[in-house]
Write a structure and sequence with these properties.
The protein is built from eleven helices and two strands; from the N terminus they run ααααααααβααβα. The protein is mainly α and 192 residues long. The termini are far apart.
């Protein structure tokens, strides 16, 4: 299969073939992606992907209600957990973002609806032929980053938001030579 060139070994191959670019609309799953993309800052996605299951366990299946209640003792346990990236700022960000998530969801009803508005509730399909054409940001990721920061989220710069949007299917950045591009481009469009 002529995959996107970044998917050249496991676990990247399975992630590429089964998850990357598939539209996600579950609020808790979206929150989990946000934690993982924030954890990736300055690191490779492969590093985070290898630690994803440890993150899921350490962060209570990314349940924002639970993560929002983490105290200093829980942070100390997370800092001692070799299965995750032990960066105090990234751990604190997950907790802060859980609280911001809960506030946002209470105010607007759905994290999914809030996020997908930045692509007009339908995946943006790009038509790149080589990996070097993929941007690190877009107008939509700029707008998402600004809106999330205004609501108290952090580790949500435009580059992180763009990677998040790719991961959760808001943007189809599979290369046109990759079979996943065509498969995901045929996905039914979602209405508001």
């Amino acid at each position: 299969m002529p995959r996107c060139p970044w998917a050249h070994r496991q676990p990247l191959i399975d992630y590429h073939d089964q998850e990357w670019g598939v539209p996600v609309h579950d609020d808790v799953e979206l929150f989990g992606h946000l934690i993982l993309d924030g954890a990736q800052a300055g690191l490779s996605w492969e590093t985070v992907l290898k630690k994803r299951e440890a993150y899921r366990l350490a962060f209570d299946n990314f349940d924002p209600e639970k993560v929002a209640r983490y105290d200093a003792q829980r942070v100390a346990r997370l800092m001692a957990n070799p299965g995750i990236i032990r960066n105090r700022l990234k751990i604190a960000s997950a907790i802060r973002n859980a609280n911001a998530f809960l506030t946002l969801r209470q105010e607007v009803g759905s994290f999914d609806q809030f996020l997908w508005q930045f692509v007009d509730f339908s995946p943006q399909v790009n038509h790149f032929e080589v990996q070097t054409q993929l941007p690190a940001r877009s107008d939509a990721s700029d707008a998402m980053s600004k809106a999330l920061k205004a609501r108290g989220f952090n580790f949500v710069g435009t580059t992180i938001c763009y990677a998040f949007m790719q991961a959760v299917g808001m943007i189809n950045d599979h290369l046109v030579t990759c079979p996943r591009h065509k498969e995901l481009s045929r996905a039914p469009k979602r209405r508001r």
